Amino acid sequence: MEATHCRQTAPGAFLAFARFTLCGGGVGIASSFAVTALASWMPWSLANAAITAASTLLATELHARFTFGAGKRATRRQHTQSAGSAAAAYLVTCLAMFLLHHLVATPGALLEQTVYLGASALAGIARFAVLRLVVFARNRSQAPATTAAVRPVPTVPAGPAQLCPAA
Q1: pLDDT in tens, 102-153
Q2: Comparing C-alpha atoms, which of 17, 39, 20, 18 is closest to residue 28?
Q3: CA 19, 52, 94 angle in degrees (round to 5)?
Q4: Would you state the pLDDT for residue 45?
Q5: Residues 6+ apart with CB under 8 A from 67
Q6: For residues 63 and 75, what is the distance between their CA atoms, to the nearest angstrom?
Q7: Quick one: DSSP state of residue 142?
């Protein structure tokens, strides 16, 4: 029996974004419940930090295996880069909330949620682009490019017959 090798191809941008939203959204919803449950046993900030770390690891694995079509575990480099993009997204949402509270003395819950979700959506789109184009990019050369040694071509004085065969 002949063994066949199935090569997984990277999904298109639309399918990858749908998968990114599904995986990231699913992990985000589960994380919100997990933070609430864990916060009943420890301070909320500590519970949030623990769940954020765990959910980032889980989401990175899902993105490596499913979202971007690699079909294999994420590497240490991918985990590090993904954590960096998650931290940047976190800073964007914090900055948005800081600016809101700086501009509006007592924003209502609806305005706070609108600003937070808007910042989260923009940060999510940027994070998707970073993950797709940098972290899980395919066909990226792993080795530095090498240049072949160039040998000089010896020049021989050409006569009329070599310059123009019709001569």
Answers
A1: 999 999 989 998 988 888 889 989 999 999 999 998 755 444 444 445 555 5
A2: 20
A3: 95
A4: 83
A5: 11, 16, 19, 20, 23, 131, 136
A6: 12
A7: S
DSSP per-residue codes, 11-37: PPHHHHHHHHHHHHHHHHHHHHHHHHH
Tally of CB atoms within 10 A around 160: 9
Q: What one-character-per-residue DSSP string does 34-83 give?
A: HHHHHHTTS-HHHHHHHHHHHHHHHHHHHIIIIITS--SPPPHHHHHHHH
- Amino acid, single-letter form, for residue 163: L
What span, in angstroms and rounded, lies between the C-alpha atoms of 19 and 132? 12
Note whether 69 and 20 are within 8 A (CB): no
Query: Nearest to residue 70, comparing CAs of 7, 128, 20?
Result: 7
How far apart are alpha carbons 75 and 81 in whole angstroms? 10
> Helix 44-62 vs helix 76-103: angle between axes, to the nearest 10 degrees?
130
- Supply the pTM of this predicted model: 0.68
In the three-class reduction of DSSP (H, G, I as helix; E, B as strand; rest coil), residue 123 is classed as helix
